[in-house]
Design a protein that fits this description.
The structure is a homodimer.
Chain A lengths: L8 H15 L11 H8 L3 H13 L3 E4 L3 E4 L4 H6 L4 E3 L8 E11 L2 H7 L6 E11 L2 E11 L17 H9 L3 E12 L2 H7 L6 E11 L4 E9 L4 E7 L1
Antiparallel strand pairs in A: 1-2, 3-10, 4-5, 5-6, 6-9, 7-8, 8-9
The first copy, chain A, binds a DNA duplex through helix 3.
Chain lengths: 239, 239
DNA sequence: GAGTGGTCTAGACCACAAT
DNA sequence: TTGTGGTCTAGACCACTCC
């Protein structure tokens, strides 16, 4: 007995719940109402709510814990490490590198930032440059750009930025990074990259150009990394 | 009213069906029995079969067509192009490159092949070297190794190999490639790579080291590619 | 019209966590 | 003991394909 609507009920339920997540009705770590409560509220059966939740769990937006309830995902360290950080030392250890911030500045968008972050000509961005190190050895030089409008006070943090920026986006600005697209190339290190990576100018480095997408589907961060892959590699699983 | 077993019923059903796929009881393109038929045969409800099929569909092993039935996936060109070929021209066009075979040989395994393909010291491998081109411009130099035992007559095909090897593995040898793991690095082109890619020796090239995994979980192909990323890029979606 | 997958429901029971 | 998610079932109806 579907009420109104054209799409399958469980998809409508999925979209309603996702909307609430985007609006911040529930925050990371929060406990959702039980399946029966949601079913009663939305006038559908528990099985339909379950199927909607299934999809959100598959998208890593929710986590189920048997006997306890369904929670909003916390994307903290584990996710930063295993989901968004694909560079892995050759010895196979999966450590998150430390980072040293080199510079934070505010500027008008350039063409690349404009198109990547879908900004307008007049917008300003915050740019962060940092080096990331494993065992005190520099392995990547990163340049990060975000909209100043979306992250207003970020530049004011001085150089006291957390190692995992995505956690901060979530806790301080309510912006959850849900996915990302990366483009990789092999390029010759320029003078700056070479300097920070302790390499010769022109040495081959792995360039990673990442656009991070928020829950609502909007791009919120452009990150261009140059990596020394002498002792580490980028891993991708195709399945 | 579960019959025997400890795992959830639908997982047992999923494993049984997967076993049959691995054994080749159904070949790519075949129509599976209907959900009701499978349910009756396995003494479970239709909903349980459905949940098992759901997982196999999610793994891209099966395809459902409403009103027609459930089919074994055909991994042909579409999959080769969109699933296993992550190199994309800068203009965004998604064309599968052509290939020119340079050499096929048979040899004792080397250390890398042994560990990647889980072979023993005495095994032999077939090695293929080829160049792949887009618009007649060479973009990657590939070296491919497979066990001669698993692909006995492959070397005899002379240089008449299809562009998409995975289709051939499936149709000629019953080996379905289900997933792959890739490791990427930026390296300096050696003399051979530079020659085939029309680059200067030492130019930065993207090295992709891929191990392809068959349906049964065994590694069956090692492929090391060196790519000129001047006009194309490796794309990865993190989600 | 017959057969297939797709959706939705309702109810039973199990496994687990908290109290 | 209570409440949660996890599994399993049975039956109804819909949407699509084919004959």
């Amino acid at each position: 007995m579907p009420t109104p609507g054209f799409n399958p009920l469980y998809q409508q339920v999925r979209d309603i719940l996702k909307e609430r997540l985007i609006k911040g009705a529930w925050k990371p770590g929060d406990l959702l109402p039980s399946e029966m409560q949601l079913a009663n509220e939305l006038k559908v059966s528990q099985g339909t709510v379950r199927k909607a939740l299934d999809e959100l769990v598959a998208q890593n937006l929710l986590v189920r814990r048997q006997g306890r309830g369904t929670y909003v995902s916390q994307h903290d360290l584990h996710r930063s490490l295993f989901h968004f950080f694909k560079l892995e030392p050759d010895d196979g250890s999966r450590r998150l590198p430390t980072s040293r911030v080199l510079d934070i500045s505010v500027a008008k968008v350039n063409a690349e930032e404009r198109s990547a972050l879908k900004l307008s000509k007049a917008d300003t961005v915050i740019r962060i440059a940092r080096v990331r190190l494993v065992d005190d050895i520099p392995i990547m030089y990163e340049r990060i750009s975000v909209s100043e409008t979306r992250f207003p006070t970020l530049a004011g943090n001085g150089e006291h930025l957390p190692n995992t920026l995505y956690s901060m986006y979530s806790t301080d600005y309510g912006v959850t990074i849900a996915s990302a697209q990366e483009e990789l190339r092999a390029v010759a290190a320029d003078q700056i990259q070479a300097h920070h990576l302790h390499l010769a100018e022109g040495a081959p480095v792995l360039e990673i150009r990442r656009i991070a997408i928020a829950l609502d589907g909007n791009p919120v961060e452009l990150r261009v990394s140059h990596c020394d892959t002498a002792n580490c590699r980028y891993v991708a699983d195709l399945s």
